[in-house]
Amino acid sequence: MMPSDRSNPVSAAPEAFGLSPSSPAPLMSARSLVKTFTVGRTMKPGSGRTLHAVDNISLDVFPAETLGLVGESGSGKSTLGRCLTRLYDINGGTLSFEGTDITKADARALKPVRRKVQMIFQDPSASLNPRRRVRDVLAEVLKVHRIREGAGIEDRLGELMDLVGLRREYLDRYPHEFSGGQRQRIGIARALAVEPKLIVADEPVSALDVSVQAQIVNLFSDLRERLDLTYVFIAHDLAVVRQVSSRVAVMYLGSIVETGETDALYARPSHPYTQALLSAIPQPHNRGRRDRILLSGEIPSPLDPPAGCKFSTRCPQAQDICRQVRPVLSAISAERQVACHFPLG
Amino acid sequence: MTSAEKPILLDVNGLTVSFATDRGMVRAVRDVSFSVREGEILSIVGESGSGKSVTLLSLLGLHDRKTTRVEGMVSFRGRGILDLSPGELRSIRGREIGLISQDPMTALNPVYTIGWQIAEQIRAHEKISARAARKRAVELLGEVGLSNPQEAVDRYPHQLSGGMRQRAVIAMALSCNPALLVADEPTTALDVTVQAQVLDLLLRLRKDFGSAIILITHDMGVVSEVADRVAVMYAGRIVERGETEAMFASPLHPYSWGLMGSIPPLTGPRLARLKSIPGMPPTPDRIGEGCGFAPRCAFARSACLERPPLRKIGTQAALCILEEPERAALRRTVLSAEEFA
Question: Which of A154, A156, A258, B26 is the most exposed place for a label (fewest CB within 10 A)?
Fold first, then answer.
């Protein structure tokens, strides 16, 4: 993490949804975003139940920041990522990129957005076509978006390989000839091919072994610096998110329960869930120096979320009001927003 | 009585496991030795392909006997178990050694209830009525922390959450009160808040039942949390072993340094860059006699092409040519705090 990033007023994200006059316009902005899925639908009309995977989420992504999205499985973090890149259609609320509303944009209207917003996926072997060489995978992107032509394409392919730390000879290899870490580098190269402004990375290092994971985490940091990128970095590993993010949003059952500047949030979490989540992580660097809060039970089904605060069924601090009234995400300080009736001091 | 005075339960000596492949025999585990005392938690840590799961499966006799050659000595309670017949081994597995696997969904049969499966295991090893076995199953499910064991016993695996399934698998492993529990990545498929519950359970089992546990994991955090002793595997060998406290305070092997430098800290200052290890782990068919880590090691020298010596310091030991005080000086260059952001 560069020191300049953390002193940057942008990453401090003041006031609710970044409306402070001192902060620049957000690159991407979501308001009351909703994404639902219907599950268990049969031939019978009106059958099936509605699952709110993303439940009324508002958030801003500012230029040059890395926004970490953390949460356990079923929290909706991946679904939110796919809504931000418009890989999913959105069921409610609005989404805008560089001030343009793209909530309902169709494929044609999205094409210029795709040049600026790219996605990196968790499993690089599933996201690369096994029958195509790296050269073809990368060149296709350049051709579709008419970024380079003729000999320019070859130059750009070489540049991309250099950027992600792969040898240029590897352009003629197939995905299966690479290790997991190398395949993820190819996934990153493909995202970089269009020279995007914003990259949404969904669990980009969680399939990798620790020693290789560290290489890719470092690569993300290097690329951001060299190419002035903005990231939304989705991961369940809170230590990795802390390493790369300037600001963090914690998700639980489809909602954001807390957002804040990374170091402050990790040092002093305000939401009981954030606190419990942080305390649950075994830390090799800090043996035996923590008080673990053992939560009972597991995340409830998103099909049937608890009334009131969604965390109330597992929260050690829950009161009656928590089971009745759902708290809204609101600012408790310049850098922090929390959705809790009794935020921690 | 401290664990160092307790009798040795499992003793593994010079375990070598080779597989027949298209390109001849490939050695996945080479000359691995370790022991586990009663009531002790030993953690075997390593990345994928390091040989940690193969070590475990072969000493339990769960390898394919047609294509796998297992050499060395493994004794459990003083009795050699590598040469036992499959039938004799079966009477030890399940009763004296319980296995907890990574993915509870594959360990459980989807078409039988949890209770049926636990009772089946009990009745395979003990002469006991079906009713009594079922009663034991309910008790076990309660002991592993299922909130409503009377009801859970009649549930099918798909009706339980991931954490509850893993508890059911643990209940099954405990069903015959084994002296040794072998757990292969028991929390890897679980969320952190649930992982914390399961680790807590393992520690409680050791306390209440005195079970010894071999815990295989890739997560150094999990190791630091529960293990009494650690063995670090790389490229088929145990490259470092020692008491957990000592190992985290001053790891001996450059690979251990790299592993620790690769993990971002959760508290304190953030690092400008993680100290990643260059390159990637070798596949078993590419490992020679020399140090398997040498191609990725910043401190490798020509002597590393030879088989590395075992050097011991106090309770720790490492397969590495480095010696004090050079080792300590090099470790400081890797794990120093000066590159914080």
Answer: A154
Each residue's pLDDT tens digit, B291-310? 999 999 999 999 999 999 99
CA B16 vs CA A160, B88, B301: distances in Å? 43, 22, 26
ipTM confidence: 0.84
State the burial class of residue B96 (Cβ atoms within 10 Å of its Cβ: 0-12, 13-18, 19+): middle
Global confidence as pTM: 0.87
Pairing state between β A247-252 and B237-243: unpaired
So where are chain A's domains?
3-338
Six-digit token string for B321: 């040519």
- Are B193 and A243 within 8 A, CB to CB? no
Right CATH for A3-338 from 3.40.50.1820, 3.90.1300.10, 3.40.50.300, 3.40.710.10: 3.40.50.300
- A332: which 2 tokens? 């408790």
Query: Hey, are the CB atoms on A210 and B259 less than 8 Å from each other?
Result: yes
CB-defined contacts A:B, below 8 A:
136
Rg of chain B in Å (alpha carbons): 21
Measured CA to CA, the distance from residue A344 to residue A326 in angstroms comes to 17
Give the span between the Cα atoms of B268 and A292, in whole angstroms: 18
Of residues A3, A213, A296, nearest to B341 (C-beta): A3
